[in-house]
Design a protein that fits this description.
Blueprint (H helix, E strand, L loop, with lengths): L13 E3 L7 H7 L5 E6 H6 L1 H11 L5 E6 L5 H14 L3 E6 L1 H13 L22 E5 L11 E5 L6 E5 L4 E4 L9 H19 L6 H23 L4 H21 L3 H13 L3 H6 L2 H11 L1 H10 L10 H18 L12 H5 L2 H7 L12 H14 L2
């Protein structure tokens, strides 16, 4: 019998449901704030979501200041620039609206408003746990889980390695109506990002009973709704379930952590300049295969969540094959290009292994140790098995 134990917690409360964005003014007033710094990117502006939120804030008697220059996967100097802009405006809270880049930028800006200097001064490597002004997070896609995580992630401008800052949102407003304008590619990449959080949480070396429940439910919701949402982005019910899945997956991996899939995903994204969701998608099949080989029962649990048939006498390797095949089929259906199609050289990808280990300490959160040579083999399989 598997012995399950562990610590679990949730720092950021959530307001969830279609139309919940209408409550954001009350949320801000509850913090005693009146001049929010609204952080978002060009995609959020083009979708009309920012305009809607600004109208709600202004009609509620607030004086929002807009910052719409968030870059995809920003570097620390971008965040410092946003924080300096917020300081000049004398704002009293921050709203992060969009995907992970916007929400993580907002979390770090909230730190800068309470602390001097550039954001680099508060990286995890410094050991600091800085205070911050109230931060409200509003996702407009269903993938990062950044609204619920306690760390904001950013790339270092000089090394391109991923860094982070301890910074949680004070409250998150999850309105699936804000995701209706996400194009199929964003829907797919976001969904696979959430899938990677849930899958790595459930196959990590630090599982706990609450995270297990949340991770499996997230996997079930994504497997049952992602393809349909890519086909019909206007389906509010599918969008609602995917947003719930993303949030649940974020809660799960906030407690358990991730492991080698994200280590490679971070390095691949930084090296080739691709989005985090896409880079993590490439790791899914082999993470699932590895997890099932280590723990056939956990592999069965994942298969059950995905509504896959597994023979009663199947081995861990056979269960892993079933999982990987189903995941790769889902990726193909959703139009995810292969690493080969993206012109990422096989040997170049494998060559990222050591750097991924050196710059992502959570690499060692695997359920059993994985050497650099084994990691290189896994990366080779990620490249070979999804074509």
């Amino acid at each position: 019998m598997e012995i399950i134990g562990g610590r679990y917690e949730q720092e950021c409360p959530v307001i969830f449901g279609a139309g919940s964005i209408e409550k954001i003014t009350d949320v801000i007033k509850d913090f005693g704030c009146s001049k929010p710094f609204l952080v978002y990117d060009a995609g959020v502006r083009a979708a009309g979501a920012a305009e809607r939120v600004i109208r709600i804030l202004q009609e509620g008697g607030l004086s929002p200041v807009e910052y719409d220059d968030v870059k995809p996967d920003p570097v620390d100097t971008d965040v410092t620039e946003a924080g300096e802009a917020a300081r000049k405006e004398d704002v009293d809270c921050v709203i992060g609206m969009g995907g992970g880049s916007s929400m993580d930028t907002a979390k770090m800006v909230s730190v800068m408003l309470n602390n001097p200097g550039p954001i680099r001064d508060y990286f995890l490597s410094t050991g600091k746990v800085p205070s911050h002004v109230p931060c409200i997070l509003v996702p407009t896609s269903s993938g990062t889980g950044s609204e619920i995580t306690r760390v904001a992630v950013v790339s270092e401008a000089d090394t391109h390695a991923k860094g982070g800052v301890f910074a949680s949102g004070n409250i998150a407003v999850l309105d699936p109506e804000l995701t209706l304008t996400c194009p199929p590619s964003v829907t797919a990449n976001s969904g696979f990002d959430a899938f990677s959080h849930a899958l790595e949480s459930y196959t990590s070396g630090a599982t706990d009973p609450m995270s297990d429940v949340l991770a499996l439910r997230a996997i079930e919701l994504i497997a049952s709704n992602l393809k349909q949402a890519c086909d019909d982005g206007s389906d509010v019910e599918r969008r609602t379930k995917l947003m719930q899945a993303s949030n649940f997956a974020g809660m799960a991996f906030s407690n358990t952590g991730v492991h080698f899939g994200h280590a490679f995903g971070h390095q691949l994204g930084g090296h080739f300049g691709i989005g985090h969701g896409l880079s993590c998608a490439y790791t899914l099949g082999e993470v699932a295969r590895f997890g099932a080989e280590v723990s056939p029962q956990r592999g069965r649990d994942i298969a059950k969540a995905m509504k896959l048939c597994v023979p009663e006498n199947a081995t861990g390797s056979e269960i892993g094959e079933i999982l990987a095949d189903a995941i790769y089929d889902m990726m193909r259906y959703c139009g995810v290009p292969s690493m080969k199609e993206k012109n990422f050289g096989r040997e170049e990808c494998i060559g990222l292994a050591q750097e991924a280990i050196d710059t992502n300490p959570f690499y060692y959160n695997t359920p059993v140790p994985v050497s650099v040579e084994e990691f290189q083999t896994l990366i080779g399989k990620m490249w070979d098995n999804y074509q």
